[in-house]
Design brief:
The structure is a single chain. With 377 residues, the chain is of the alpha+beta class. Strand 8 and strand 9 form a beta hairpin. Helix 1 crosses helix 2. The N terminus is likely disordered.
Length: 377
């Protein structure tokens, strides 16, 4: 059977100029949907499974910062747990979409990190510690990851980073989710979930964190998932529904976890339109709240009614509608007494712009969210 002509290369944007070698393209070889008869067509097979892959954590080591290290620039993976890690009773959580599409991606991400350092965490100097925290970023351009995050002095001094480079994104996509973990946070594992059903190459970054219960001091494991879901309308609603269900399954199926959170950018609706062919089915008519309730997810910003909770539509964005696509959901095991408690989030990054010599661009078309996480028994 002849090898098919692959039509799309998310990591290289090119076609073969000669007859391709036998076997799948290297960046697709690991996908479980591929089979040896080469009958896989790069389309959205509804039965295509997602792939979960272990991630390494990277920390900056000044002694390894050499000019011949092209991408990592002193960032080396660390075997966790390290001697710096400890169990904390609370964590500061930040989630922020940094808009990969606009110009000056690296400069905008640098401005966002400066805002987080000096305004959100109150760290005047790079040596000032933010305390135990996890920063979850979405839509980080690969160039901004290399030239802004990996080179920022405050990040180098206090954080571990995962993924550390664009090549670590599933299929080496041009942008993705990046999680920054303060060095004293006790991390047990890190992984990515490359969604099997995604029109926009979306994925999730998960980290398992060891914490103390704020009531009795017992050790608890909490899973923090950083993701951006497909946000296309119409038929694509089923993609975002399945992606959210897969994230919730990760929170639910591990007996050792005390719950966790899903944070990131979501579609405005998880509900099918009335003109959908199967709209007469009961599950098609449920509201967003019904969908979240069925999964056991709690929207921690549900108290921010109307404009108070908006995170998008005020700072650019094509055909922007003032709305709340950026969310944090908490999940607590229904059969256990322990509960994951997340405070009502604070809106951050409002009105943040680059200087006039960089066209005064908005740092991001999204606002960010900042909250505090605890586990209580």
């Amino acid at each position: 059977m002849p090898f098919p002509q692959w039509l799309h290369y998310p990591n290289r944007y090119q076609r073969y100029t000669k007859s391709p070698p036998p076997g799948p393209p290297p960046h697709l070889a690991h996908l479980p949907a591929f089979n040896e008869e080469y009958d896989y067509v790069e389309t959205l097979d509804p039965n295509r499974p997602s792939s979960k892959k272990e991630l390494k954590l990277y920390r900056f080591l000044p002694d390894c910062d050499k000019a011949d290290n092209r991408y990592y620039l002193g960032w080396k993976h660390t075997a966790y747990p390290t001697r710096h890690m400890q169990e904390h009773a609370s964590l500061r959580i930040v989630s922020w979409n940094l808009d990969f599409k606009n110009f000056h991606a690296a400069e905008r991400v640098t401005a966002a990190l400066n805002h987080l350092q000096k305004v959100v965490f109150g760290c005047v100097f790079p040596d000032d510690s933010p305390g135990p925290c996890v920063i979850m970023l979405q839509e980080v351009h690969g160039r901004a990851l290399r030239h802004a995050i990996n080179k920022h002095p405050w990040i180098r001094r206090h954080f571990m980073v995962t993924p550390v480079d664009q090549t670590k994104f599933p299929q080496e996509w041009m942008h993705g989710n990046v999680t920054l973990i303060e060095r004293t946070v006790f991390v047990r594992e890190a992984f990515t979930i490359a969604y099997g059903l995604s029109e926009q190459q979306r994925f999730a970054v998960g980290i398992s964190v060891k914490m103390q219960s704020s009531t009795d001091g017992r050790t608890r494991y909490v899973l923090l998932i950083n993701t951006q879901l497909d946000d296309l309308p119409g038929e694509y609603v089923r993609y975002s529904r399945r992606q959210m269900q897969e994230c919730q399954r990760e929170l639910r199926e591990s007996d050792s976890f005390s719950g966790g959170i899903i944070a990131g950018t979501m579609p405005l609706t998880f509900v099918y339109n009335e003109d959908h062919p199967s709209y007469d089915m009961p599950e098609m008519k449920e509201t967003n709240e019904d969908f979240f309730r069925k999964l056991g997810l709690v929207d921690v910003a549900q108290g921010l009614v109307g404009k108070k909770g908006h995170t998008w539509g005020y700072q650019g964005g094509r055909r922007a509608t003032k709305s709340r696509p950026d969310r944090i959901f908490s999940f607590s095991p229904p059969d256990k007494r322990r509960k994951v408690i997340v405070s009502e989030p604070e809106i951050i990054g409002v009105g943040l712009k680059l200087p006039p010599d960089l066209k005064g661009l908005w740092v991001s078309e999204h606002f960010g969210l900042s909250a505090t996480l605890q586990v209580k028994d």
